[in-house]
Write a structure and sequence with these properties.
This protein is an alpha/beta fold. It has a domain at about 20-115 and about 180-225: Glutaredoxin, CATH 3.40.30. Helix content is about 30%, strand content about 20%. The protein has eight helices and ten strands. It has helices at about 50-65, 65-70, 85-90, 105-110, 130-135, 150-165, 170-175, 215-225, and strands spanning about 20-25, 30, 40-45, 75-80, 100, 115-120, 130, 180, 185-190, 195-200. The protein is globular. It starts with 19 loop residues before the first strand and ends with a helix.
Amino acid sequence: MSAHYLDHPLQPGDLAPNIVLDAISREGKVALDEFRGRSPLLIGLFRGLLCPFCRRHVAAMAQLIPALREKGVDSLAVVNTPVERARHYFRYHPISGLLAASDPERASHRAFGLPILEFTQNETRWPYKVGMDVVMTMRVDRPGELPEPMDPAAAGDLLSEKDGYEITEADQQMRIPGHMQLVGHFLLDREGVVRWSFTEVEGEGRNVCRALNPEELMSAASQVAH
């Protein structure tokens, strides 16, 4: 697996690389090659559990597991959180049936072409740099949780306060000051070829901190299931 970022996320038709990570929800390792030739796979690549949006998106992905399984599609959630810290979190916030893996080195994100975004004062070169002037115009909408659509920073602060998430030293070690790992979902067919994706890279920032569209995903899953 390359140690360098691809210059764009993997696209439909690209073969996903094998990745071997520490399992969170079971002992041992998880490898993408386990699924190759056996079943399609939805892989969600998230920031650490420190990210309030990612905690919600992991839970939302888990809610889709039964419907995906009906189509023969497996699921894997990958978080940038050290394995012991992640196990501790899921011990107190269990998600039934979720296969999860730890990737504190962000190897999977690099392999799938998801860059680390640098926050600047006013220079934007998406998806590598974004000015705070642009960030403040972005809006995240979570009806029922946020009083109104808010910029990602304000929304994240409010959700974190609401959650009461305890930030540990292991979480702090995952922070990249002035930067943010971009994330996404990739649907692979039985041979490990990307057939559908939803990432924060697309849309010039409009997808940042947004959840995927379940209807789009399930439509794509119906296609790979055949």
